[in-house]
Design goal:
The complex is a heterodimer of chains A (about 300) and B (about 575). The longest helix of chain A has 16 residues. Chain A contains eight helices and twelve strands. Chain A has one domain: Rossmann fold (3-Layer(aba) Sandwich). With about 300 residues, chain A is an alpha/beta fold. Chain B has 18 helices and eleven strands. In chain B, the strands form three sheets. In chain B, strands 3, 4, 5, 6, 7, 8 and 9 form a seven-stranded mixed sheet that branches. The chains are: A alpha/beta (about 300), B alpha+beta (about 575). At the A-B interface, helix 5 of A face helix 3 of B.
Chain lengths: ~300, ~575
Amino acid sequence: MSLKIIVLAKQVPDTRNVGKDAMKEDGTINRAALPAIFNPEDLNALEQALRLKDAYPGTTVTLLTMGPGRAAEIIREGLYRGADDGYLLTDRAFAGADTLATSYALATAIKKIGDYDIIIGGRQAIDGDTAQVGPQVAEKLGLTQVTYAEEILNVDEKNRSITVKRHIDGGVETVEGPLPIVITVNGSAAPCRPRNAKLVMKYKRALGAQEKAPAPACHPEGVSALSYPELYEKRPYLNIQEWSVADVNGDLAQCGLSGSPTKVKAIQNIVFQAKESKTLTGSDKDVEDLIVELLANHTIG
Amino acid sequence: MANYYTDIPELKYHLNNPMMERICELKERNYRDKEEFDYAPQDYADAMDSFDKVLEITGEITGEIIAPNAEGVDEEGPHCANGRVEYASGTKQNLDAMVKAGLNGMTMPRRFGGLNFPITPYTMCAEIVAAADAGFGNIWSLQDCIETLYEFGNEDQHSRFIPRICAGETMSMDLTEPDAGSDLQSVMLKATFDEKENCWLLNGVKRFITNGDADLHLVLARSEEGTKDGRGLSMFIYDKRQGGVDVRRIENKLGIHGSPTCELVYKNAKAELCGDRKLGLIKYVMALMNGARLGIAAQSVGLSQAAYNEGLAYAKERKQFGKAIIEFPAVYDMLSIMKAKLDAGRALLYQTSRYVDIYKALEDIARERKLTLEERQEQKKYAKLADSFTPLAKGMNSEYANQNAYDCIQIHGGSGFMLEYACQRIYRDARITSIYEGTTQLQTVAAIRYVTNGSYLATIREFETIPCSPEMEPLKARLVEMANKFEACMNKVKEAQNQELLDFVARRLMEMAADCIMAHLLIQDATKAPGLFAKSAVVYLNYAEAEVEKHCSFINSFNADELTSYRQ
C-alpha cells in the first residue's frame, strides 16, 4: 500500500528564547531579531509522515507551507529529511492572514493537489499558539480529524482506516478514523529524524522562484548571482514550486487580511524587569521557598 | 542548542586548509561523479560546502542526542545475554540517529552507497562525536575498518559488504587474544580450510574486542599450521549472519562504558579470506592499525576539547575569595595550557589526516590506472609523511587528553572528584586512549626510526622556510633554537651507538620532535587566523620550549652507565 501524505508546516520566529527586542514598538513581532525556524510540532508531524513512508514503500510525502519567499527553507528542510516535494503558497494577497484565512488558503491548495490520504501537521505554531488551523482545514475539506496525535499505530488498507494514539488529559486514547483524514500532532510525539547527508547534498541548492531571482542592487549584500544556473534545468527537483492565489484558484476576499475577521483589540507590551537578583543556597529550605513563591505567582502550577 | 561543529570555529578553520583542494581533486577524480550521482559535488567549492553541511549535521546530532545521552550510557552500559551484546538504550538512539542521517561508510565510493568523503572531514566527525561520548565514538568510528576491506578485498567482497556498512551495519577488528596483546605475532586463533564447505573455519578465542558483536568482523587468524610468527597469519572476514561467534562476556572497564569490550568464542565460524594468505599481520593489520590510530588521535582531541569546555565553564562560574576562580593565575595557567595542547594536538591531527588523504587517494587511483611519475613521487612523499606523523598524532594527543582531563578535575577541586560532574567521565574515558591501538610506548617504537633517519628534522627544517606573520617571527626564531637542540640530542644519542640507550631516551626524542612540529603548525595557524590561535601559539611555544629544554638537559647529562640504576 502506498499513501499520499501532505504535511502542513510553518516557518515561525523562534519564540522560545526571546530577548528584549523580540517585540517592536507597536507590539508586533520583530522578525529581524528572532531566527526563523521550522515550527517544532510540525517537525513531529513530519516524522510521523516519514515513518509511514518507511513502512509503506511508494508512499509520497509532500510539504505545504504558506509564507514569504524565504519560507522555501521549510520545504528544503523537509526534503533533507526524506520528503518528496513541496509547495510554497506565497502571494502578497495571502499576507496578514488569521487562522480562518490561513486554513482557507491551505484547504484551497490541498484541493489543487487533489490526491491525498493523510493531511498531517503540528498541533499549533509557536508564534500564535491557537491550534485552530489544522481543525479548520479539516472542516473546510469536510474530513475527519484526529488532534493531539502522539503516534500513528496502523493504517488498514482494506478498510481505508487509520489508528492513532492521541494525547488526552491525564493519559492517552487510541482512536480509529477513515481515510482521508486530517491529523494534528502533539509535541510529545517522537522527535523528527536528523537531516540526511545525501539528501542535504542533493537538495541544498533547491530554491523557490523568489529566492532564485537576483537580489536588487539596493539590497545590502548586493546582487547575488545564482551558482550553477544550468542545474535548475537539468534537475527539475531543484525548483521549489510556488503558488499564488490565482494558482490555487483562491477567492481574494477570503485570503490574507481581507479574509481575516480577527481584529486585534489591544496589544500589551509586557516587559519583565527584574529589579534584583536573588541568591539561593542549595539548602532544602531555600529550594522549598522558591517553589512556594513560583506557585504563588503562577509561574509554575 | 549546542552544535558540536559550529560551536568550535577551529574545526572549520582546519577544514578550509588549502591542501583540501588537491585532496578533493584526487578523491573526486576531477568531479566525474556529478553526472551519475545527484549528491556528488560539481567542483571544489561545492565539495567543501557539502563537507561543511555534513559536519553541521554531525555537530547537531552530537549536541542534541549523543551529548544528552552520554551520562545515561556511562551508567547503563551494554549488556551480554545469550551470547549477544545489547547496547545501552542511549547508544541505540545515538546509532539510529547517525544511521538515519546517512553518516556511515562516509569515505566509501558512491557506487557502494558511500559519501566518498576524504579522511579529513570524516576524522572531524569522529572528533566531534568523541567530544560528547568517547565510547559511542568507538562504535561509530569502527566503520573505518571498511577502508581495509576496500583496500585489500576483491570486487565481489566489495559489492557484498561495503553497501551494508554504508547502510549502517557496524564493524569490529578482532586482533587481540589473551596471550597476544601488543605482540600480535603470537595470535593463535585457528583458521582451517574446509574442503567440503569450501570455506575457512575459525576456532579459538579473542579478547578485548571493541564492539565484538558487530555485523562484520575483520579477524586475524593463523592459517598456516605449525607456524609461530606473523608470517603465518591471514586476515578473514566474518559475517555475523553466518553465525559461529558468540560473546562470552563484556569487560567491566574504568571508562568508555558505552563501548562493549568483548571476549569472543569462535566455534567453526565460517569466514572468508581477505586479500592474500600470510599477509594478515604484516600488511593488512598494519594498514588497519594506521587508520585506527588516526581514529584514536581524533577521539583524544575530542576528549581534550570536552575537558577544556568543562574546565572553562566551571572556572568562569565558580567563585572563591570574592571572584571567579578563572581570574587567578594558578587557574588560568591550567586553562591556557589545556587550550594550547588542544590546539596544537588538533593541528597535528589534521596535518596527519591530510597527508593520509593524499597518499590514499593516489593509491586508489593507482588501482584504476598507472600513476604518472610525478604522482608516484607525490604518493611516496605523503605516504612517508603520514607514516611518520601518525604515531606522533596518536601518541601526543592521547597523552594530552589524559593531561587535560587531569587538569579539568583539578580546576573543579573537590567537586571534580564527585561523580555528579562530567569531568570524571572524561577522565575515565581518556585513560584508554594512550593504551589501545598501541600504547604511547609502542607509538614511540613506530616513531623513533623517523627520529634517527632525520625525517622529522627535515620536516621541521622545511617548516622553518614557511613565512609567518611579524607577530610570530620572534616565536619562530626560538623554535629554530629548539630544533637545534633536538638535532644535537639526536646526534649525541646516535653517535653513542647503544641500542638500549636509544630505546631508553626514545620517548624524549619523539616528544622533542613532536613539540617542534606542533609549535610550527600553531605558528602557521596563528599567522592565518590570529584571532583563533595567536594566544595558543604563545602559550604552546613557552610550554614546548621548556619541554625541549627538559629533555635536552636530561639527555645531555645522561650517562649510559647509569642504566644499571634504572634496570629493575
